[in-house]
Amino acid sequence: MTKILIVGGVAGGASAAARARRLSEDAEIIMFERGPFVSFANCGLPYHIGGDIQERSKLLLQTPESFLARFNVDVRVMNEVVSIDRHNKSVTVKNLVDGSEYSESYDFLLLSPGAGPVVPPIPGIDNPLTHSLRNIPDMDRIIQTIQMNKPEHATVVGGGFIGLEMMEAFHQLGIKTTLIEMADQVMTPVDREMAGFAHAEIRQKGINLKLGVALQSVEYIPNDHIASVGSGESEEHQHIEGELNLTLNNGESLTTDILIMAIGVRPETKLAAEAGLQIGELGGIYTNEMMQTSDPAIYAVGDAVEEKDFVTGAQTLVPLAGPANRQGRMAADNMLGRNETYQGTQGTAICKIFDLAVASTGKNEKQLKRDGVEYEKVYVHTASHASYYPGAEIVSFKMLFDPKNGKIFGAQAVGKDGVDKRIDVMAVAQRAGMTVEQLQHLELTYAPPYGSAKDVINQAAFVASNLIKGDAKAIHYGEICDLSEDQILLDVRNPGELEAVGCLAGAINIPVDQLRQRMGELPKDKEIIIYCQVGLRGNVAYRQLVNNGYKARNLIGGYRTYKFAHA
Amino acid sequence: MTKILIVGGVAGGASAAARARRLSEDAEIIMFERGPFVSFANCGLPYHIGGDIQERSKLLLQTPESFLARFNVDVRVMNEVVSIDRHNKSVTVKNLVDGSEYSESYDFLLLSPGAGPVVPPIPGIDNPLTHSLRNIPDMDRIIQTIQMNKPEHATVVGGGFIGLEMMEAFHQLGIKTTLIEMADQVMTPVDREMAGFAHAEIRQKGINLKLGVALQSVEYIPNDHIASVGSGESEEHQHIEGELNLTLNNGESLTTDILIMAIGVRPETKLAAEAGLQIGELGGIYTNEMMQTSDPAIYAVGDAVEEKDFVTGAQTLVPLAGPANRQGRMAADNMLGRNETYQGTQGTAICKIFDLAVASTGKNEKQLKRDGVEYEKVYVHTASHASYYPGAEIVSFKMLFDPKNGKIFGAQAVGKDGVDKRIDVMAVAQRAGMTVEQLQHLELTYAPPYGSAKDVINQAAFVASNLIKGDAKAIHYGEICDLSEDQILLDVRNPGELEAVGCLAGAINIPVDQLRQRMGELPKDKEIIIYCQVGLRGNVAYRQLVNNGYKARNLIGGYRTYKFAHA
């Protein structure tokens, strides 16, 4: 009879427990969770705060009782595993309710402790109006503060998933919100120019977005207001009400009523490190492809571990729910004698930012640059479904690939419709090892309400293949500011468009449909830098010009890419 | 200078013309279209009739003038190519406006004539109230009939894409509608049990759906009503007003005010056949992988051609817009000296049926059976995104695969949300040659508004892998009626569910969470046929039972699959 202990009762741990029981009816399975809840929907917490998910109970997917009934798993909440005795294969457990300690032996131990919020040592940060959001009790505290203090202004520090979702939650509750991000962009899985679409959306919704700014200190000013018990105010109210004066590193200061710290998470490795398990260079628990730590009797999964990057093969930290769940399942397989290997993480991610979805898979340009990988990129902006059918929205799509063999490095997309679908397609294509040339042939669902006969992905693949084959010569938005004397800008849009959305200074305007007649106006001794709105007409113009002996380049993704790169 | 003639100015022809110009500035390109319009959105026609697309002009994507301005293509509408002189490389063209004929020489000829509606020789079918829908004039005639006759009842014959879309259009206009389909299901790209979801939706919307019924004869009864010109009725009205008496092959008869024949399409091969080009066994123009006909100077693309099936490698006819567009592009490449090969058609298809999307890719079960291919299948029914986030809908998903090596044969999905995405994922995975085992590792976008940590596809892959590895033993919905004396049915749902949605006669009911305690109630000498609502709890019960020495099978896809298979 195999005895399995599991540390952590959420995504990875709960998946492992359920899978282990399905494989073995007689294994003894004990799951320890130091918090009061197991298997809760941690990705749903901001949405309950904001009111999208109205019933708190919907977040509690399983209870200790339901786990016992269905899977015969002994779930011990409020029980923290405080140390591991690897030699004797046992753990010491502290009962957080009564403070007692006991030990429990194991044949296999699974660590799924997750990652905790990083709270930097900022002066004054430890105050009753500052929160982070990791679990149900955190959420309850935030909701309580909102209900009792009725904040008029909230500040979120950190423009990652949780920060963005909390920003939206506050906005939905009618609370004026400031979002502070130290980097020059939110949502770092995508590149700066793609984040520009998110910045525009965030500002359009009235959020005070401060990029490239850090929080320097916090001053808590308690409110001397005396609770009016007669009018329904609670006395508990009194001790946390107040406001925060925030000082930023750009010299500004800011008064706010509630502060959320969401600058990132760090793997929980204390237990593993103290037990002498190998910790990787990135600070996560080391695991091999079987999800085994440096001790063969101990497995680890989820946000706490380092895993293999699918694209580079290097170690990576990807604190996301999908990998955690699948790793938990595999670890259970392997503890019970199977031989499953984890196939690496692409880091496929998506975030709802008001009406936009922002998503990515694989490597972004920042990472490729950092790693010194030679790459090419394309942008397309095209309708999520047939543009003549109601509800079509622009999908802004970026694809990174190997300029020699067309191998896919990564993809990013932003838009109001069909973004998840396009990144899913790319995640599958990349995992399957497809090239951008092969993407041309993808046969995706098409009817007017759902797609286009030439889908976003097909179109991006056409553009990329044109570059690889030399049928097009690219210039990118970042190079537009550095044109030489030997280059001139040609805007091939219609004059009305230039007025409506703006244009680049110094460009000659010849609409594409007049170009064949007016080509003589262009010099043959200069390189013509062509642009249109999204790159499509630019390509038509490019082909006309080069087939007529001109030197030219086309701005990939057009003016729209250039414009939002600066948003 | 290359001279290219193109026959047909819609999807394939228009794509080829634009691509050819981008490749060569000096090629002479003439596009002939016997109708009055080029490059119109033929997939949008039913949606304009139904009112979703309000402006007719949105369907006209290009005009002869715009084609000339942008691509320097000589577009000749109302010009029909009536014969090909292959020896002299010229065609005879009839000007349909004045009846004159002329000839035009070519270096390369591209045939993109499309496919025409099949109208069977049913007595009485040729009458002013019976229509088919292929192009803008057809659409205009249908709209005119609706506007002038104000039909109270419409009948659509044929449950394919156009028939279903026309059914929905009539329903949207408040016209009572009967849909007649000779087969036992609509939307033949999916299998009968998946079509059951569509049947339920169609009937729920009040459509009179008649399956397994054919139209036998039509009697046109003109209305003697005299137009009251004074009250605004037109006299033109008079001559087409009336009603149709339909006689069906089941003895029923039916009175209707407008009849749409949409039983299918047939490749337009007259011109090709008369020129002696090879016609394939399926009745389409034969082409090789370069989209070249049996005459190397003549290419053909789109609905008129036979192409290679991606899965089987056999010839197939797939009249869909996506392949037509890509083939047009490739044919242009090859006419201008490139060497592009068409990579085969999976037949990826989707149709909106009221609130449902019904989609498929690859081979269906009917085709696999017919071809004698050994296959296994799984069904899952799971939420389109995190079930605790608003707006989640059930995706009912079927996957067909090789039971030995896990190769994907095809997939089908039905639901109100996220159906296109899942079939796109499968279309890519199949094209990339992935196995169901590999689908377990797919890392798809997940945040509560978009997906689940274990997506529909991951879940289907888990079920399929369980079958391949012997971790689960399947029984399918079709076998439930033929249980032997040595098998007993076990329903592991909660009693309330049985009452709410129904159950199978003779089943013992032990909720899965009580099974461990009550296992003794079950006989060890019989095979336990387990089922739950969708198959998930059934699998938990299955694992419990077999790990305790019972013989068992689990109904894949659960009661929901069984129930809708009979809808």
From TrEMBL, chains A, B:
Its cofactor is FAD. InterPro entries: FAD-bd_OxRdtase, FAD/NAD-bd_sf, FAD/NAD-binding_dom, FAD/NAD-linked_Rdtase_dimer_sf, Pyr_nucl-diS_OxRdtase_dimer, Rhodanese-like_dom, Rhodanese-like_dom_sf. Residues 483-567 form the Rhodanese domain. GO terms for molecular function: oxidoreductase activity. SUPFAM superfamilies: FAD/NAD(P)-binding domain (SSF51905), FAD/NAD-linked reductases, dimerisation (C-terminal) domain (SSF55424), Rhodanese/Cell cycle control phosphatase (SSF52821). It comes from the Bacteria. PROSITE patterns: RHODANESE_3. Belongs to the class-III pyridine nucleotide-disulfide oxidoreductase family. This is CoA-disulfide reductase. Keywords: FAD, Flavoprotein, Oxidoreductase, Redox-active center.
